[in-house]
Design a protein that fits this description.
- This protein has eight helices and 17 strands.
- It is an alpha+beta fold and 304 residues long.
- It folds into three domains: 13-71 and 208-238, Pseudouridine synthase; 74-206, Pseudouridine synthase (2-Layer Sandwich), CATH 3.30.2350; 242-298, PUA domain (Archaeosine Trna-guanine Transglycosylase, Chain: A, domain 4).
- Strands 1, 2, 3, 4, 7, 10, 11, 12 and 13 form a nine-stranded mixed β-sheet that branches.
C-alpha cells in the first residue's frame, strides 16, 4: 500500500486564519498545517466551535513566538441574548432559566457596562479548557460535575454597546488575555436582572492583527503550489512589531548562540528586545541587571 501523503517541510511564518463557525480550533489548525505541508504548527488561543474569526496560526519556528500572541489583547464582536441563561453560557448549552427583559432601556444597559470596564474579577466557566487536578474543566462539566473555581483578574479596556434590539445586545469588546466573553455576558445579564448568554461571537483582533484569510481562500490557493501559499504568510518578526531592535554582528551572534550574555553599546537598559542578524530575526534577547544582553528565545532555521 503506497503512502500518497506529501512529506512535511520546514516552513516558518504566521497565517492569520478567519476560523469558520462549526470548526474546532484544533481542526482548523490541522487543515492549515496539512495544506502548508508544515512539519510543525500551533495556534495561539482557542476559539469555540460556535465562535468565528481571527485565529493566528504559527508555523515552524514561529511556534516559539506564539506565547506573545497568547498574551496579546483581544478584540471581539459579541451578541448577547437577554432573558435566557444556559448551562454553557452560550447557545450550545441547555436552557437553565428564562426571565422577562421587558422594561430594560438602552441607558440602563450602558450604565451596567461601565461596571465591567477596567480590571474586573471573573470566575472561569466550567465549560473551559482550564485544568482542575490535571483534568480539563469542560470534561468534568460533561460528567455533570461542578468544582470550585477561584476568581481571576482580567482587564476590559473597552466595552461598547453597538446595538440593542428586542432581547439582543451587540457589543464591541477590547480585553486582556484570559477574558471569557461568555462569563462577561452572564455577568452583564445578572447585573440587568434578567440573565443572558452569548449567541454569537467573532474575534476581530489579536494584538495588532486584524486582517485575516478565509479557509476557502487558502484551499483555492493550494493548487497553485507551495510558493503561492507561502506568500500568504507573515514573517516571524511581524509578531514583535514595535519592539526595540538590536542588530548583532557575526561575532556577537556566535556568543549569543552559545547562550552567553554580551555587552552591546547603546542598548536599552531593561526589558526584552528583538535580535536581528543579516536582516533576519535571530530571536528574543533580554537586558540583564548589569546591562548585558542575554539570549531569551532563539530561532533556528535550516537555511542558516
Amino acid at each position: 500500500m503506497t503512502n500518497n501523503k506529501p512529506p512535511a517541510r520546514n516552513v516558518h511564518g504566521i497565517f492569520l486564519l478567519n476560523k469558520p463557525l462549526g470548526l474546532s480550533s484544533n481542526g482548523a489548525l490541522q487543515r492549515v498545517k496539512r495544506l502548508f505541508q508544515a512539519r510543525k504548527a500551533g495556534h495561539t488561543g482557542s476559539l469555540d466551535k460556535l465562535a468565528c474569526g481571527l485565529l493566528p496560526i504559527c508555523l515552524g519556528e514561529a511556534t516559539k513566538l506564539s506565547g506573545f500572541l497568547l498574551d496579546a489583547d483581544k478584540h471581539y464582536h459579541a451578541v448577547c441574548t437577554l432573558g435566557i441563561t444556559t448551562t454553557t453560557g452560550d447557545a450550545e448549552g441547555e436552557i437553565l432559566e428564562t426571565h422577562s427583559f421587558d422594561g430594560i432601556q438602552r441607558s440602563q444597559i450602558e450604565q451596567v457596562l461601565t461596571q465591567f470596564t477596567g480590571e474586573i474579577q471573573q470566575i472561569p466557566p466550567m465549560h473551559s479548557a482550564l485544568k482542575y487536578h490535571g483534568q480539563a474543566l469542560y470534561k468534568l462539566a460533561r460528567q455533570g460535575k461542578v468544582v470550585e473555581r477561584q476568581p481571576r483578574p482580567v482587564t476590559i479596556y473597552s466595552l461598547k454597546l453597538q446595538n440593542f434590539s428586542d432581547n439582543l445586545l451587540s457589543l464591541a469588546v477590547h480585553c486582556s488575555k484570559g477574558t471569557y466573553i461568555r462569563t462577561l455576558a452572564e455577568d452583564i445579564g445578572q447585573a440587568l436582572g434578567c440573565g443572558a448568554h452569548i449567541s454569537a461571537l467573532q474575534r476581530v483582533g489579536v494584538g495588532h492583527y486584524s486582517d485575516m484569510i478565509d479557509l476557502a481562500t487558502l484551499e483555492l490557493t493550494a493548487p497553485q503550489g507551495l510558493a503561492a501559499l507561502d506568500k500568504l504568510l507573515l514573517p516571524l518578526e511581524d509578531v514583535l512589531v514595535g519592539w526595540p531592535i538590536i542588530t548583532l554582528s557575526k561575532e556577537t551572534v556566535y556568543y549569543i548562540r552559545q547562550g552567553q550574555p554580551v555587552q552591546i553599546p547603546h542598548a536599552p537598559t531593561e526589558g526584552l528586545v528583538k535580535l536581528m542578524f543579516n536582516h533576519h530575526l535571530l530571536g528574543i534577547g533580554e537586558i540583564l541587571e548589569d546591562g548585558r544582553l542575554a539570549p531569551k528565545r532563539l530561532l533556528l532555521r535550516e537555511t542558516e
